[in-house]
Amino acid sequence: MIFRLTFLGTSASVPSAERNHPALLIEAGGHRILVDCGEGTQRQLLRSGAGFRRLHRLLLTHPRFDHILGIPGLFSTLRLRQSDDLLTVHGGSDTLDLVVRMLAGLWGEGQAPIPLTLEPLMPGRFFNADEFMIDSFQVRHRDTDSYGFVLETPPRRHLRAERLASLVVPDGPIGKELVEGRTITLVDGRAVAPEDVLGPLEAGKKLVIIGDTKATDDLAEHVRGADLLVIEATFLERDAALARDYGHLTAAQAASLAATSNVKQLILTHISGRYADEEILAEAVRAFPNSRLAADLDVHTI
Predict the structure, then answer these.
(1) In what order do the strands lie in the sheet with 228-232?
(2) pLDDT of 170-228, one tens digit each?
(3) CATH 3.60.15.10: which residues of the chain?
(4) Phi, psi values for residue 66, rounded to 5°
(5) Which residue among 130, 137, 139, 226 is least enclosed by CB atoms within 10 Å?
(6) Is 145 a catalytic residue?
(7) 4-155+203-301 — its CATH code?
(8) Which of 66, 135, 145, 212 is catalytic?
């Protein structure tokens, strides 16, 4: 299984002609998950070709307006399209309270234009499927109720094609049973055990998403060993004091976190228009060479 990321919005709090407000679509194992929903997200979904179909979950990092003001427009469009898919919104209690008040102001108290359920986040696992699981952890960003997310596939042993061929194991659901640890019996009566055809245990894939945050010192335990870390880089190191005042990271801080946490790849987002992209990337690469800047409508898979 792969994680497919579509960066729908990559700007900081002020959008630009090239960068929309924050939003990220993750597709994995038949699930479509939206992380944050800045103003204009519904148009970005159309521009990317992803569309509105089957949005299963909305994960909200925190209750700042640049991360949530796209919700009313998206919900209104889903209503007009007569969507009956249930959308589950996950966020901290303060974040969900703001969403409830926003919906009440538009559609009436306790009302929503689409089938909707709100699930408050607590640190730990809140979603578990066969293909992957999602954990949340608290993030420090000024006085907000903020969360980051870890999406991870379980370790697996894969079928060895040469062993299947030598034992004349046919294609089909038999393979799934073997992967799941069950011995199967072939039509000729031979028993084939998982150990006969499976390779060594391989680590799963780990994706970490962090929105706005003012520090990295308590993030390493969650980030460690990630195949991909997506995190903000709103300021450059020359403006570190300003970054602290506003509760954000510099590109150097984000890259240093990746370098010391055995991360394989770093993608920076929440990009401020005060800097040239090349300058931001250069600062990050000095600390962590496998860094890149996200741009709107970029697609990345792990």
Answers:
(1) 124-128, 133-139, 146-152, 206-209, 228-232, 266-269, 291-293
(2) 988 888 888 888 999 999 999 999 889 888 888 899 999 999 999 999 999 999 999 99
(3) 4-155+203-301
(4) -65, -10
(5) 130
(6) no
(7) 3.60.15.10
(8) 66
